[in-house]
Amino acid sequence: MIMTGQRKELATIVGVGLIVFWVALVIGDSSPVKLAALVVFWGVCVLTLLKPLIGLSILVVMIVSNLSNNLIEIGFPGPSVAKLAAPGLIALLGARYLLWGDRPYVGWLALWLMVGFLALKLFGATYAVDWRVTLDVASGFGKDAIIAMLALAFMNYRNGVKTVVLSAVLTAAVICALGLVQVIGYSLPSNLEIFAHFGRFHGRFEGPIDDANFFAVVLVFCIPAALFQLLQTRNPLKLIFWSIALALLLFGFLATQSRGGIVALSVAFGILFLRLNASQKLAAIVALAGLAVVAATLLGPEVFDRLSTIVDLVQEQRVDLSTEGRLVSWAVAVEIFFSNPWLGVGGGNFNILFQDLALEMGLMFRGEGRSTHSLYLEVLAEQGILGLLYFLFIIWCAAVGLLGAYQQAKTHRNKRLENLYLALGAGLAGYLTGMALLHDAYPRFLWILIALAIEAGRIAQLNFERQNTETPHRSENASAEA
């Protein structure tokens, strides 16, 4: 609740902002679009000062929707939203600390783990074939780590974890809704279609990130969270809302035709079903089956032609071109590891070495460098066994953090928070399973989730401690009023 003094401070900030805008309008030579963008940006800043979790939600929406890159792609004339977002959120956290004493959350464990991983990547530049590529990879990871720590900074506010999860779920559901509109037969304007487009040649749903498989693993994370929202609600309107959201996510997931996504989602559901009671399992099966039938009906049977090849791979051991390409990449990654077992060849250098090694090994000729198509083999080949062990240690810390948060919620008998952490853990486990078949191309959202999981136990502890300290104060106030 903003007190009277705080309102005066906020009014001062708004007034200064309006004066700055008026001066820019009078003496500046910026275009009306850029000035309008400045007004919108300032309005968002004021709104997030009042409700800081809106800023966190905007950050997640931007990342899941690949907003900045897509706006650049369509020629958006305003300033880059990515260049505004991070400094704007840092300024927001700083302003709330200076004005009202709100301390940002600092995830020290996540910070030091990511600093260590960054150090390994930077050290790779000392022995890499192309050190410039390795430095670029390290720079990209550094930016991802900063964004992850920025998201963690909002965890001192109640419902911070829930904001991250639901912002991702609802953003993905809206993207899938845009895809559904196109399947039904309506054309979207190009500036909307780019956020939910289908592949030109293979017809698979790629969402906003130009790759059906990567979008599939994002949906793998979102589906368990939407399912739990559906199972735990008793409000009829919310029941309808979450049924629609879950149906859209399942539609989008099936439309990606991702075989690796099927495996990843199976892992996520397996973890969920281990913790659900009998009635919840039955409700989940009924809900998923019914909504999947609806989604499949909209897509048509041809979608399942590609997915059914999973059975062919297992039963008949037939390998299609896509699978063969992956197997070649994996074979080269293993060969690179054997040649450079301890520290690898440096970040980004697998692509440089791939073609020559593939030819030497008499493998499939692709005429170009290729990615490893496995995050874990990528780390193994480029950072060696030390890098892979360190990365697996980070994942282990994430699992420990989530288990700690889940146990605390269970101890305090907070069923909603218990379900939230269970959904987060199942979704992240599915995401990480999917990354066994995908390389490190769109890592920002993944690192936010990993950092959140690492700190989940401490975040839950702080939230419950805050609740325990607030409860006596409320009781005292009630007694005083009586």
Automatic annotation (TrEMBL):
<dbReference type="InterPro" id="IPR051533">
    <property type="entry name" value="WaaL-like"/>
</dbReference>
<dbReference type="InterPro" id="IPR007016">
    <property type="entry name" value="O-antigen_ligase-rel_domated"/>
</dbReference>
<feature type="transmembrane region" description="Helical">
    <location>
        <begin position="164"/>
        <end position="188"/>
    </location>
</feature>
<feature type="domain" description="O-antigen ligase-related">
    <location>
        <begin position="244"/>
        <end position="392"/>
    </location>
</feature>
<feature type="transmembrane region" description="Helical">
    <location>
        <begin position="385"/>
        <end position="407"/>
    </location>
</feature>
<protein>
    <recommendedName>
        <fullName>O-antigen ligase-related domain-containing protein</fullName>
    </recommendedName>
</protein>
<dbReference type="Pfam" id="PF04932">
    <property type="entry name" value="Wzy_C"/>
</dbReference>
<feature type="transmembrane region" description="Helical">
    <location>
        <begin position="12"/>
        <end position="28"/>
    </location>
</feature>
<feature type="transmembrane region" description="Helical">
    <location>
        <begin position="239"/>
        <end position="255"/>
    </location>
</feature>
<feature type="transmembrane region" description="Helical">
    <location>
        <begin position="35"/>
        <end position="61"/>
    </location>
</feature>
<dbReference type="GO" id="GO:0016020">
    <property type="term" value="C:membrane"/>
</dbReference>
<keyword id="KW-0812">Transmembrane</keyword>
<feature type="transmembrane region" description="Helical">
    <location>
        <begin position="261"/>
        <end position="278"/>
    </location>
</feature>
<keyword id="KW-0472">Membrane</keyword>
<feature type="transmembrane region" description="Helical">
    <location>
        <begin position="285"/>
        <end position="304"/>
    </location>
</feature>
<feature type="transmembrane region" description="Helical">
    <location>
        <begin position="214"/>
        <end position="232"/>
    </location>
</feature>
<feature type="transmembrane region" description="Helical">
    <location>
        <begin position="419"/>
        <end position="439"/>
    </location>
</feature>
<keyword id="KW-1133">Transmembrane helix</keyword>
<feature type="transmembrane region" description="Helical">
    <location>
        <begin position="81"/>
        <end position="99"/>
    </location>
</feature>
<feature type="transmembrane region" description="Helical">
    <location>
        <begin position="106"/>
        <end position="128"/>
    </location>
</feature>
<feature type="transmembrane region" description="Helical">
    <location>
        <begin position="140"/>
        <end position="157"/>
    </location>
</feature>
